[in-house]
Write the structure tokens for this entry.
Amino acid sequence: MRYLLGLVLAYLVMAPAMADETWNTEYGLVIYEQDLGDVAILSYPVDRGRRGTVYFPGLAGNYDNRSVHEGYWIEDGPGPCMAEIVGADGRRSNNWGRVIIAFDLPAFPTSWTALGGDCFDDPTIPLRGEVPF
């Protein structure tokens, strides 16, 4: 019995996040929502209970070889972009931009630093995401 309990605990500690990852930021909780094909989809608080979405192509299912990844964010409502964008999940808006995320360590769980920007602008606005303990 003790051996079985040890195996179960080891699995729980080593199991990948499976979209259960969260990070604390100065604006609130960022949540790893789902994988859609090869795209990892995260959400973040915007206002009045609404959430924006961040898409990272190529990051889905990657829990042990993370580094720097490029993606894009989309929020509802009017935005400054001249073109509308469609997210991997079908979300559409002209309120979007580019984002770059750099994970502190290659394996889950790890914190990160991201840079965001509007439309096609280079990402320059920093955001820190810390793993909650």
